[in-house]
Design goal:
Protein name: SusD family protein
Strand content: 5-15%
Family: Belongs to the SusD family.
Low-confidence stretches: 8-28, 30-55
Organism: Paraprevotella clara
Keywords: Cell outer membrane, Membrane, Signal
GO cellular component, one term: cell outer membrane
CATH topology of the domain at 128-296 and 580-608: Serine Threonine Protein Phosphatase 5, Tetratricopeptide repeat
Mean pLDDT: 90
Helix content: 40-55%
Strand order of the largest sheet: 8-7-11-12
Shape: globular
Number of helices: 21
Largest sheet: 4 strands, mixed
Length: about 600
């Protein structure tokens, strides 16, 4: 079955009975998971009318190839929302159902729309305990819902007919159980490892929190099991399914995460290792990345052009090409971009400047990030011409004043007329809406957006770009980091220079930790991994706090015969005034009902609200 079409159908199916069941059974993991098991094979679409819903048994699922494929779809759909964001700004009760673009919580890109800061997003930035607790419960429930579904399939695998479909689905099951535990582990620390389906009406078992050692073993074992049976690639109808490469990447990412200094020598084993296992984890990560690279299946998309314009366009196209040779795992958004009934999204609409009728300005790069782009060889920075001679990737990723996008010269400056500063077109809100937004940072996003995407009044059809979770450039940069920390700086430099050569940037003659970090920040700009890097490096308290790392903006004023004035300053309103990150936020609070039911310890410093 075509994965893209199946995902679109599956979304609609889940909505009918699912929401009612989850509302009833969501109090505990076990109850929520029981509901999830039902929703995996219950729906309101014609597909299910061959067997009435009230008479359907589980065996109908395992014996029917089409229903079996439908059963798997939620595993894909719930692994990441991708570019399908949702930030309700008027109904407080649905704040916790928001779907955020995680890089918004970092320092490279922020929304410029006021309403977002009055919504759940703003509450999370303020470190509002109640909203963090509610949001954490949504994440927790979603991940365990999928794990329960996987466990149910494993118990019934003997009912599935032997053949290629069974092999593929079992491989997917191993991957997704590993993946969802990996997501839980990153956000909550060691959690309850439940590897069998549970019936909360008849099963009163309680589970302890797993140690870091146990979490690593469980995730890696499942991911390796997936890698042994999944193919390297699929034909066009199944493109986007989990592959051997994705499974090996999960193994490598698990060891890399576990190797971080912040998880060593911890008193609580569910928050880290009791001793220092960093070297062991690093060496295991090295082997895993080398195995993945040894497949020789993935590669960087090379850029043939040599001038600034062609390099910019070719680099942008990397992120507009679905499931390319550089792609390891992507969220498969609908090809037709349908937002209402499919799994399209509104990235281009939400990122657009006023010239293109944009009113949300949800993806505005910060000056903090712009400062991360170095200069090309032989050139020095000129504050009076700040956008000349920069890293080629700057021109691909950032729409700045005077740059050209879709035939339009970006007008992101003020013009001095007497005592007045007249805002340019892309600093002037489009239309008559009082909530229409423009950039607060002085920039718009160039990466990911599609110049050819039409933006009109029909919001049902929007954008279709896939959301990249992992790509080969990240493999090389991860491997470089691992080798650097193992003391092999030369091997690390080799990988970093491969990334730089692709972007037509000069190679580094030597490599420092600061240069390695900066290369990740530039190459992986606005990608979710850059947000999680802040956590595993233990620098979230510094980077995610307004006092220690204020969000910076650029203001440009053209003053007739006088030199143009470029002023970099800290943003005096949003998000500067609400950016707070407390140490306890390295781990989210486990839902309190779980704490009481399983009689386990809560993560440090969280109190019930």
């Amino acid at each position: 079955m075509d994965l893209h079409k199946s995902l679109t159908l599956g979304i609609a199916k889940q909505a009918c009975l699912c929401s009612r069941l989850i509302a009833i059974f969501k109090k505990y993991i076990l109850c929520g998971l029981f509901a999830a098991g039902l929703t995996a094979f219950t729906g309101c679409d014609d597909l299910f009318r061959d067997t009435p819903v009230d008479k359907m048994s589980e065996k109908d699922i395992w014996k029917n190839p089409m229903l079996l494929d439908e059963y798997v779809l939620p595993w894909y759909r719930n692994m990441n929302s991708g570019f399908s964001t949702y930030v309700p700004t008027t109904i407080a009760l649905v704040k916790s159902a928001s779907r955020y673009y995680m890089p918004w919580f970092g320092d490279q890109i922020v929304p410029s729309k006021n309403d977002y800061y009055n919504a759940g997003y703003g509450d999370l930035l303020k470190s509002n305990t109640k909203e963090i607790t509610n949001w954490a419960q949504v994440q927790w429930s979603n991940y365990y819902t999928q794990i329960q579904s996987v466990n149910r399939l494993f118990v019934n695998q003997g009912e599935i007919a032997e053949g290629s479909q069974k092999q593929r689905i079992l491989g997917e099951a191993h991957f997704f159980r590993a993946y969802y535990y990996y997501m839980l582990w990153r956000q909550f620390g060691g959690v309850m490892l439940i590897q069998e389906p549970l019936d909360p009406l008849n099963d009163s078992r309680k589970y302890p929190r797993a140690s870091y050692e146990e979490m690593v073993r469980a995730i890696v074992d499942d991911a390796r099991a997936a890698a042994t049976v999944l193919p390297l690639e699929y034909d066009a109808t199944d493109e986007g399914r989990i592959t051997q490469g994705a499974a090996l990447m999960l193994v490598a990412k698990t060891f890399q995460w576990a190797s971080s200094d912040v998880f060593q020598n911890q008193e609580k084993t569910y928050l880290g290792f009791s001793d220092d296992r960093s070297h062991d984890m690093l060496d295991s990560a090295r082997v895993a990345y080398e195995t993945l690279m040894g497949l020789q299946h993935y590669d960087l998309i090379q850029i043939a052009g040599t001038d600034e314009e062609s390099i910019k366009q070719e680099y942008r196209n990397i992120f507009l090409t679905k499931n390319s040779k550089e792609s390891i795992l992507e969220v498969q958004h609908s090809d037709d971009g349908n937002y209402d009934t499919g799994f399209g999204h509104k990235l281009d609409r939400d990122a657009a400047a006023p010239h293109f009728t944009g009113t949300t300005a949800a993806y505005t790069p910060t000056q903090n990030h712009v400062d991360e782009y170095g200069m090309r060889a032989g050139l020095t920075y000129d504050a009076q011409h700040p956008y000349v001679g920069r890293d080629y990737r700057f021109y691909a990723n950032i729409l700045y004043d005077g740059s050209t996008y879709n035939g339009h010269v970006m007008d992101i400056h003020y013009t001095r007329e007497g005592n007045n500063e007249i805002p340019g077109e892309d600093l002037t809100a489009y239309g008559t809406s009082t909530t229409a937004a423009v950039t607060r940072t002085g920039y718009y996003m160039g990466k990911f957006v599609n110049e050819k995407q039409q933006i009109n009044n029909d919001e049902a059809y929007a954008s279709s770009q896939n959301y990249i979770i992992w790509r080969y450039a990240e493999v090389l940069l991860d491997y470089a980091e691992v080798m650097f920390r193992l003391g092999n700086t030369e091997a690390a430099r080799t990988q970093v220079n491969a990334i730089r050569r692709r972007a037509h940037m000069d190679e580094l003659p030597s490599l420092t930790w600061e240069q390695l970090v900066n290369e990740r920040r530039v190459e992986l700009a606005f990608e979710e991994t850059s947000y999680w890097d802040i956590f595993r490096w233990g620098i979230a308290e510094e980077k995610l706090n307004g006092e220690s790392n204020p969000i910076k903006a650029m203001k440009i004023v053209v003053r007739g015969n006088q030199p143009t004035r470029y002023t970099i300053s800290n943003m005096d309103r949003f998000p500067a005034m609400v950016r707070v990150f407390q140490k306890k936020q390295y781990y989210l609070p486990i839902p309190w009902d779980e704490i009481r039911y399983h009689e386990i310890e809560q993560n440090p410093e969280w109190t019930e609200v």
